[in-house]
Design brief:
Blueprint lengths: L6 E5 L4 E2 H13 L3 E6 L4 E6 L2 E7 L2 E2 L10 E4 L4 H6 L3 H13 L3 E4 L3 H7 L6 E2 L6 H6 L3 E2 L4 E4 L2 E4 L5 H13 L1
Parallel strand pairs: 1-3, 1-7, 2-4, 3-6, 7-8, 8-12, 9-10
Antiparallel strand pairs: 4-5, 11-12
Helix pairs in contact: 1-6, 3-4
């Protein structure tokens, strides 16, 4: 299944877990999709390898100037700092909500669901995440499951970097339509 002609937004900022950004992006690009790094700032973002700083990545577009209508799908990588910063940014939250409201596919991993919680789009949904988000997800009106990858309609979720191979396979299949 190819992603030829598909534009996939990766929303991230400083503190993103490197593997959760790089590996899904590589999977999207290998499947023929165009990946764009959207962030709350211009320039570069600092990725993390768990608690240690890793590489930096060039931002393609600031979220304030991005439109969900220009993309076919969204990926929300984790890392603890990344989604915590994103959920405090009105433009980032609105961008995520626009994808959810349009029913476009959203792939989310680890701590990434914090932005979905903030966007108020989890009522009645089922997803997985890093275990520490369980209470936040349940309080947002969703059911939490402990699974390698869980698909609920347009929402594809995984728990942690160990789930990336299954996550990548599933997002590519779902993004291909």
């Amino acid at each position: 299944m190819g992603l030829d002609g598909k534009r996939i937004a990766f929303l991230a900022t400083d503190g993103v877990e490197e593997a959760e950004y790089v590996e899904p992006r590589d999977a999207v690009e290998k499947a023929g999709g165009t990946a764009e790094l959207i962030s709350i700032k211009s320039g570069e973002i600092q990725s993390m390898d768990h608690t240690e700083k890793s590489r930096t990545y060039a931002v393609d577009r600031e979220v304030a100037g991005a439109n969900a209508a220009d993309y076919d799908a969204l990926v929300l990588p984790g890392g603890v700092q990344n989604p915590d910063k994103l959920r405090m940014d009105e433009d980032a939250v609105a961008f995520v909500k626009a994808f959810a409201d349009a029913g476009k596919p959203i792939g989310v991993i680890c701590h990434g669901p914090w932005t979905l919680v903030e966007a108020g789009v989890l009522q009645g949904r089922t997803l997985t995440s890093y275990p520490s988000l369980r209470t936040d997800i349940v309080n947002a009106g969703a059911d939490w499951v402990d699974e390698e990858v869980h698909v609920d309609g347009n929402l594809i979720s995984s728990r942690n970097p160990g789930d990336i191979p299954a996550f990548n396979k599933t997002i590519v299949e779902r993004f291909a339509g």
